[in-house]
Amino acid sequence: MTKNEPLLQMKNVGISFGGLKAVSAIDVELNQGELIGLIGPNGAGKTTTFNMLTGVYAPTEGEILFDGKSLKGLQPFQVTRRGISRTFQNIRLFEELSVLDNVKVAYHSLAKHSMLSSILRLPSHFKGEKEMEEKSIEFLKIFQLDRYMNEKAKNLPYGQQRRLEIARALAAGPKLLLLDEPAAGMNPQETHELMELIAFIRKKFQLTILLIEHDMPLVMGICERIYVLDHGQLIAEGTPEVIRNHPKVIEAYLGEEVAE
Ligand SMILES: Nc1ncnc2c1ncn2[C@@H]1O[C@H](COP(=O)(O)OP(=O)(O)OP(=O)(O)O)[C@@H](O)[C@H]1O
């Protein structure tokens, strides 16, 4: 990737499920370090877009370039290794595992030490394991979750479970972080803390972030630019100010949420 090239380029990317065009030839560009929103009414194609970016679905049209290289044909774990991590709309933690193990699992998926050394329990395995544990604890500290590290994930309060999901996504060392409705189900206080956390991790880890969110004050408050999807089409793109006043966006939302 040259210095001025976007980190992510979606060129005419779309996908059909049978007769339904869920996403239709969209163009999205994210520059290194940007925090960008992806909004739209229910069923607009936002999560489907994330699924195409992470190798869950293969686009039926267009191409996706990440860090200058095509993502075509990659499986989700390969996309993670290239540097794209995500969280899910419905929290997906290993509920019965400890908070610490939930983060360690993310390291395991990237582990450099070989399967053989792990089976044979060679010294390199223990070194790798110890390093993973130390790094995982570091992440938990950043998210103020270290005091819960031996607790089962399912026992954490809801807002903390969402934070743990983000911690786990970050443990994979992404360049691009995709957050799918991270504030869903949070109370205003938790949402406010989440906004601060997103701003903080973005700086600390020099991340580029794409954020799906229905909480308009949150999106308008922290995103530099916003893409708006409606019925699988990209209907607008621009700064929060532009989006707030965009006739097509107001129409898609029936003028309510965005104008507030
Ligand atoms: N695997 C699939 N098979 C068939 N249709 C699908 C599949 N995945 C998504 N769709 C359809 O694609 C459209 C877009 O769905 P998507 O979940 O991306 O919307 P969304 O914008 O994320 O909505 P929400 O805000 O409700 O989460 C919907 O009509 C949905 O039913």
Automatic annotation (TrEMBL):
Boundaries of every ABC transporter domain copy: 8-256
One annotated GO biological process: L-alanine transport
Keyword ATP-binding: yes
CDD domains given in the database record: ABC_Mj1267_LivG_branched
UniProt keyword terms in alphabetical order: ATP-binding, Nucleotide-binding, Transport
PANTHER family for the chain: AMINO ACID ABC TRANSPORTER ATP-BINDING PROTEIN, CONSERVED COMPONENT OF ABC TRANSPORTER FOR NATURAL AMINO ACIDS-RELATED
Matches recorded under SUPFAM superfamilies: P-loop containing nucleoside triphosphate hydrolases
GO cellular component assignments: plasma membrane
Keyword Transmembrane attributed: no
UniProt xrefs under SMART domains: AAA
Organism lineage: Bacteria, Bacillati, Bacillota, Bacilli, Bacillales
GO MF annotation terms: ATP binding; ATP hydrolysis activity; L-isoleucine transmembrane transporter activity; L-phenylalanine transmembrane transporter activity; L-valine transmembrane transporter activity
Protein name from the UniProt record: ABC transporter ATP-binding protein
